[in-house]
From TrEMBL, chain B:
GO cellular component: plasma membrane
Protein name: TRAP-type C4-dicarboxylate transport system permease small subunit
Signal peptide residue numbers: none
Family assignment from sequence similarity: Belongs to the TRAP transporter small permease family.
Residue ranges of domain Tripartite ATP-independent periplasmic transporters DctQ component in the record: 24-151
The species this protein was found in: Serpentinicella alkaliphila
Localization (cell): Cell inner membrane
TrEMBL record, chain C:
Annotated PANTHER family: SIALIC ACID TRAP TRANSPORTER PERMEASE PROTEIN SIAT-RELATED
Organism field: Serpentinicella alkaliphila
Cellular-component GO terms for this entry: plasma membrane
Keyword Lyase appears in the UniProt entry: no
Protein's recorded name: C4-dicarboxylate transporter DctM subunit
Length: 314, 165, 423
């Protein structure tokens, strides 16, 4: 260990930042913006190297890589973290984040801080900032106006219990199909619906074979800009300050661009002839899913209390 | 000794057959449930995939022992047979090194994941991760067997040469 | 770290160590020598690489192929296609190309096609007097049409890395795929003529009819598979399992399969799947180290220093990808190169779709080139053909694909005609 602080501050720090988002997506831009600003703020001393599009691994791999210090930084996913710290599953529950402001309040709350501390102690993954990312919607082959329109639709599901439960509760029939085969599955009628980020669904052309979009925003996925605790402990306080501050700055950068991108995607979808509908009776959705929230909360220590804190967050 | 090693291969081959049979059937069940009964199953795909991983991991040592992996033999096929015998020992030693490293690497992964749950079907991820150290152990066993054979070949030739000249 | 990786790779390759183990050992040496990289990454990468439903098509089609061989279906297809196209020079080779194109139209994976066609056609072609090496090269090249003619898993991967429309990318593959197939037919024609294959007499209608009746059980299979996929009964991967069931039922009904034969087919199917999967698994560690050490951005950045001319840069990039493809698996190459390549090349004003299809085809070519050519290895696995022999006839196929790539560089309008027509 180096004791000479003066020489340490002059030392170059290289941090490898891996994420799975495609090149040129907002998440990738945010990562690059982060690298750029950190470089500026540190006068060229801290170099963040961004590896996009899963070059260094899948999402679960990146989480493990942070734990072992293979990666210095990565975007982690709120719902995926629930496989190691189940509490994170709470913020990924369907319809629990009501709108943008509520989601922001939850992400900045002390409740969330407590989850993070657990993540740091258990797995050595330290989130520096939380970014709202995809607001998931459905693409279907027939229009949806109320919950019963969902009944018996075969929907492509990611291979995660949360999604299968959500679809089942809506009365749909979840069919696990790898993302890579989702496009052809929708095209050939193996499934009649997919869910996902509207920006992505537009870019990948999924609307070519399903012309109805239901703007449910059933699950809001959250990206955590996280650093490996192993690397973190080696950094000077000055560097830690820069990394934390810039993380919160680029979070604003992310959000500001996010809504522009979502609106643009909706415009492009409408221009391509996609009919955009929504379930008018919002209360019916809440009534349907509140018991599910409680069910999930029961499995956790202080679950009911956490649930109430999330609902009440302001 | 040879008998025991042959026995492990025979056993593993039986398991391989059973695994392939099972996951083909599971995928058929998946198609039937979805298309005919219109009620897709949520466990089939992941279960089939995990069996596939087991099949590969158990198959790796067997294909090694049966010498079924393609090699680039353009250079060695033109070399003196005696030199190639030594190269074989060198190669097998390095493969043993890989297998040993793989064993520690995969054991590490198993121990670090004792509490991790597989995302879809709620089983501990270690039900699948464990396939890796088993693969490594069998591979080490077959490497050692091959080393003994290779060394026998080399030393046998030496003896012949000494006696002959 | 990269120097250890590449140096040990080359040395061990020359020393004749099996390719999968060459990659495994050189990756181990690199990881072990780097204190910043925990060893656990090896197990993690190998696991994730094999944890793929799409790759399960390989054992499925391998099994279907072995069942068909055990049930003697292969022989009947051979007899029938001979009555049909036997009078054309290189008739059986032409049949292979045709079935390769049809398979490509239903399956998204080159590896699956290689095992599906290889399992049946390697024995047929060699029985008919074709050189085993030529048979392997031909079938591997036909399997390479799999990821070019839609659907295509490689294209899906490309689109997930760059968010380009999958549908459009699929359509862009139709034209080059068909042209490639026609070229392969030409190559087969010249090969057969040069080697004095005597075309048999044109068979009478009655003989054709007899052959058809005998082969009908086998000929229905592609119809079942294609029909099933197109009508949404099963996915391309699942179709492999359906093919197995079909082969099994056929064999039991015709009483040509016994329990012993089924067992043998099962074991052989696993044993021909595993070496290919092992290479895929260790290639992922190999690719990870190269990506982590910024290999592709180092190379690509220096390419951009050479010239400002859009064509020259594109050709140098293609050259680099061909060279990379010699050693790295297509899937790994896409993950490694495309994220770096797309932003770098963006400023030259290429249509992203035009660029995408050029890159995809160039990288697919890597599965055919020695020393690491996945598709060639999978097909060679059927009869354990020695590597040297397997690659001996690959050159004309590789040149034809390169010619198509060159054409595509200069004539984007032709390449983009079909996708533009559809939208
Ligand atoms: Na295809
Ligand atoms: Na190659």
């Amino acid at each position: 260990k180096k004791t000479n602080v003066a020489s340490k501050t002059e030392e170059k720090v290289v941090l490898k930042f891996g994420h799975i988002l495609a090149v040129g997506t907002l998440g990738d831009k945010t990562a690059n913006e982060y690298a750029k600003r950190v470089l500026e703020e540190s006068n060229g001393r801290i170099v963040v190297e961004v590896f996009p599009a899963g070059q260094l691994g899948t999402l679960p791999e990146n989480m493990e890589a942070l734990e072992f210090g293979v990666l210095a930084m990565a975007f982690v996913d709120g719902s995926m973290l629930s496989t190691i710290v189940p509490e994170f599953g709470m913020i990924a529950l369907p319809f629990i984040l009501r709108d943008f402001e509520h989601a922001e309040a939850v992400l900045a709350s002390d409740t969330m801080k407590a989850f993070e501390d657990k993540l740091i102690t258990l797995k050595g993954i330290r989130p520096l900032s939380w970014h709202q990312n995809a607001n998931r919607v459905f693409l279907t082959k027939k229009p949806i106006y109320e919950i019963k329109d969902f009944h018996n639709i075969l929907v492509r599901s990611p291979e995660a219990k949360l999604y299968m439960d959500t679809f089942q509760r809506l009365g749909m029939k979840p069919t696990p199909i790898p993302w890579g085969e989702a496009f052809t599955a929708l095209q050939s009628h193996i499934v009649d619906a997919v869910d996902g980020d509207p920006i992505l669904l537009e870019q990948l052309g999924f609307y070519e074979s399903a012309k109805y979009l239901t703007d449910t925003r059933h699950i809001i996925s959250t990206l955590g800009l996280a650093v490996s605790e192993k690397k973190w402990n080696d950094l000077s306080d000055e560097d830690k300050e820069i990394l934390s501050r810039v993380a919160l700055e680029v979070k604003d950068f992310h959000i500001n661009n996010f809504f522009t991108d979502v609106n643009a995607a909706f415009e492009k979808l409408e221009a391509a002839g996609v009919a955009i509908t929504n379930i008018e009776d919002k209360q019916s959705l809440l009534d349907l899913f509140k018991p599910y929230w409680s069910e999930y909360a029961v499995g956790l220590e202080n679950g009911e209390k956490i649930l109430q804190e999330i609902i009440d967050a302001k | 000794m040879k008998k025991i090693i042959d026995g492990t291969e025979k056993l593993v081959s039986r398991v391989l057959i059973a695994l392939l049979c099972t996951f083909v059937s599971i995928v058929i069940v998946q198609v039937v449930a979805r298309y005919i009964f219109k009620s897709p199953l949520t466990w089939t795909e992941q279960t089939a995939r995990y069996m596939f991983i087991w099949m590969i991991m158990l198959g790796i040592p067997v294909t090694f022992r049966k010498n079924m992996n393609a090699a680039f033999d353009l250079v060695t096929s033109r070399m003196d047979k005696k030199i190639v015998d030594f190269i074989n020992i060198f190669n097998t030693l390095l493969i043993t090194f890989f297998a040993g490293y793989y064993f520690f690497s995969s054991m590490h992964l198993v121990f670090r994941s004792t509490k991790t749950i597989a995302q879809g079907i709620n089983i501990p991820i270690n039900y699948v991760y464990t396939a890796q150290p088993i693969c490594a152990v069998l591979l080490i066993l077959y490497c050692l067997e091959k080393l003994v054979d290779d060394i026998k070949i080399v030393s046998a030739k030496r003896v012949v040469r000494k006696g002959g000249v | 770290m990269l120097s250890i990786l590449f140096l040990s790779f080359l040395i061990l390759l020359i020393l004749g160590m099996p390719i999968g183990y060459v990659m495994a050992v050189s990756a181990t040496l690199s990881i072990a020598s780097n204190s910043n990289l925990p060893g656990i990454v090896m197990a993690q990468k190998m696991f994730t690489a094999t944890d793929s439903f799409s790759l399960m098509a390989i054992p499925f089609f391998m099994l279907a192929g072995h069942l068909m061989t055990e049930a003697n279906i292969t022989q009947r297809i051979l007899d029938f296609s001979k009555t049909l196209v036997g009078h054309i020079t290189g008739g059986l080779a032409q049949t292979t190309v045709m079935s390769g194109m049809l398979m490509a139209g239903i399956s998204g994976s080159g590896a699956a096609d290689a095992s599906a066609i290889g399992g049946i056609m390697v024995p047929s072609l060699t029985k008919d007097g074709y050189d085993e090496g030529f048979a392997v090269s031909l079938i591997a090249s036909c399997a390479a049409l799999g990821p070019i003619i839609p659907p295509s898993i490689i294209m899906i991967m490309y689109s997930s890395v760059t968010n380009i429309s999958v549908g459009k990318l699929f359509l862009a593959g139709v034209f080059p795929g068909i042209v490639a197939g026609i070229g392969f037919m030409g190559i087969s024609y010249f090969y057969a003529r040069k080697n004095g294959f005597v075309p048999s007499k044109r068979a009478s209608l009655k003989v054709i009819g007899n052959g058809f009746v005998k082969a009908i059980g086998a000929l229905i299979m592609p119809i079942i598979i294609m029909g099933g996929i197109l009508s949404g009964i099963f996915t391309a991967t699942e179709s492999g399992a359906i093919a197995c069931v079909y082969g099994l039922i056929y064999g039991l009904v015709t009483k040509s399969l016994t329990i012993e034969k089924i067992k043998r087919a099962l074991l052989n199917a696993t044993l021909s799947t595993v070496p290919a999967m092992f290479v895929i698994a260790v290639a992922s560690i190999f690719g990870f180290i190269m990506a982590r050490e910024n290999f592709s951005s180092l190379v690509l950045n220096s390419i951009l220093q050479i010239s400002d001319n859009a064509y020259i840069v594109l050709f140098i990039v293609i050259g680099f990808l061909v060279a990379l493809g010699m050693f790295v698996d297509t899937t790994a190459a896409i993950i490694m190169v495309v994220p770096v390549l797309v932003p770098l090349i963006g400023r030259f004003g290429y249509d992203p779709l035009h660029f995408a299809i050029i890159i995809v085809i160039t990288l697919v070519l890597g599965a055919l080139t020695p020393p690491v050519g996945m598709l060639v290895y999978i097909v060679a696995g059927v009869k354990n053909t020695p590597t040297e022999r397997a690659f001996a006839h690959i050159l004309p196929f590789v040149i034809w694909i390169l010619a198509i790539v060159t054409f595509m560089v200069f004539f984007p309008k032709v390449v983009l005609f079909i996708p533009n027509l559809m939208s």
